[in-house]
């Protein structure tokens, strides 16, 4: 079975972030410019902190691509950390650079810090926070860009917008997904409701002045997906389950909805289920299911939302306990954002693209774009004749 598989490596203040991707077929049109577009988007958004003034993320393609096309071999992607020059001794792999006097011993509430040092028997929280940091998502966005490029070969597009920040909820216009994405692209909050976007910015300003942080909700949509991706026959092949896992893997994401999500629990069935019609092909009169029924895509746009908690690092730190003395202290302050919800949208789009690409390869697998397109066209003809 063909699969889009990847691993990432690297620390927040190490020399680079790396990824190896296996399973990308030959013939996908790909360039660093395509991948850098989303890396640039990830660094934008109102409420970002000082790290984004240091980094200017770009990706290097080191294998698997020749003359602008994938060749079927594994891809190697690298995103360099410019801040590494300030951390070469602190993050050195060499034993002679060890300096225990600089150890971080005050774990931050809401972070991986304490559970991580207990799990791996560390005495320095930096060994945990460097890898658990959301900085890792920079290279995942690059991986998602490869998945986007693959999906675009079959006219499948992924986009989204921010729908809520700090309790300010956007009113989403009833327009085509592409139009909503374009609206969001012109907003500092990646929001398609200008009034709500202004309210979100004011909420961020207030939180920053108070040394606090804000979370929010992002919505990702996928259009052009054929029916039948995923499966109902085993729990781990269900498309919605795989999307939920991918979204929950993003740092600070605490909840996922598909379609109308939790609202379905508050409505009678007559106001939840999407009636089926036919006009030469099957379609739904509404899309409360978010394009997924029974663990499979149903041909409607896929709609998923993810809830991001406020960033744990506060400039007005919460209480914690020192690992060495067990005495109470204010938690360590690492450089941080007030709000990173717009950036989370870009990461969410990336992981959704990766899972849809994986499902496409599972269903229509082949070693080249030409072969997969032939398989897909044959399947679409089968669906049209159903």
CATH architecture: 4-Layer Sandwich
Describe the largest sheet: 5 strands, antiparallel
What oligomeric state best describes the polypeptide chains here?
single chain
User: Radius of gyration, Cα only, in angstroms?
Assistant: 22 Å
Helix fraction by DSSP (H/I, runs of at least 4):
25-40%
Strand order of the largest sheet: 8-7-9-15-10
By DSSP (H or I, 4+ residues per run), the number of helices equals 10
- How many separate structural domains? 1
End-to-end distance, in Å?
26 Å
Low-confidence stretches: none
CATH class: Alpha Beta
Write the layout of secondary structure elements.
Layout: E1 5-9, E2 16-22, H1 32-42, H2 51-54, E3 59-63, E4 65-66, E5 69-70, E6 75-80, H3 113-120, H4 126-132, H5 137-152, E7 157-165, E8 168-169, H6 177-185, H7 194-209, E9 216-223, H8 239-248, E10 253-258, E11 276-278, E12 282-284, E13 292-293, E14 296-297, E15 302-308, E16 319-321, E17 328-330, H9 341-364, H10 369-384
Antiparallel strand pairs: 1-2, 2-6, 3-6, 4-5, 7-8, 7-9, 9-15, 10-15, 11-12, 13-14, 16-17
Helix pairs in contact: 1-5, 1-9, 5-9, 8-9
């Amino acid at each position: 079975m063909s699969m889009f598989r990847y691993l990432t490596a690297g620390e927040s203040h190490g020399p680079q972030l790396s990824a190896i991707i296996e399973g990308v077929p030959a013939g996908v049109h790909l360039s660093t410019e395509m991948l850098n577009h989303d890396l640039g988007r990830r660094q934008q958004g109102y409420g970002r902190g000082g790290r984004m003034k240091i980094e200017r993320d770009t990706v290097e393609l080191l294998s698997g691509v020749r003359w602008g096309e994938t060749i079927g071999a594994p891809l190697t992607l690298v995103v360099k950390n410019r801040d590494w020059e300030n951390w070469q001794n602190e993050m050195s792999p060499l034993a002679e650079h060890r300096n225990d006097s600089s150890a971080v011993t005050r774990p931050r509430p809401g972070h991986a810090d304490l559970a991580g040092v207990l799990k791996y028997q560390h005495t320095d929280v930096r060994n945990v926070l460097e890898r658990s940091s959301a900085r890792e998502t920079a290279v995942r966005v690059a991986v998602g860009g490869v998945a986007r490029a693959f999906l675009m070969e079959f006219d499948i597009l992924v986009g989204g917008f921010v729908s809520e920040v700090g309790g300010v909820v956007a009113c989403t216009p009833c327009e085509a997904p592409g139009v909503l994405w374009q609206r969001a692209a012109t907003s500092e909050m990646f929001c398609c409701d200008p009034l709500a976007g202004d309210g979100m910015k004011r909420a961020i300003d207030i939180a920053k002045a108070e040394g606090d942080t804000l979370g929010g909700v992002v919505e990702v949509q996928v259009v052009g997906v054929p029916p039948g991706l995923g499966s109902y026959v085993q729990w781990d092949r269900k498309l919605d389950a795989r999307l939920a896992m991918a979204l929950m893997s993003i740092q600070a994401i605490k909840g996922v909805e598909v379609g109308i999500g939790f609202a379905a629990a508050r409505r009678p069935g007559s106001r939840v289920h999407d009636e089926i019609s036919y006009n030469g092909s099957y379609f739904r009169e509404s899309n409360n299911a978010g394009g997924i029924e029974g663990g499979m895509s149903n041909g409607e746009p896929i709609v998923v939302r993810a809830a991001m908690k406020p960033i744990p690092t506060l400039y007005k730190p919460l209480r914690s306990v020192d690992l060495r003395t067990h005495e109470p202290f204010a938690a360590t302050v690492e450089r941080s954002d007030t709000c990173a919800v717009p950036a989370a949208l870009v990461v969410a789009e990336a992981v959704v693209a990766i899972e849809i690409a994986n499902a496409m390869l599972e269903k229509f697998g082949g070693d080249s774009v030409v072969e997969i397109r032939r398989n897909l066209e044959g399947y679409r003809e089968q669906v049209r004749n159903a």
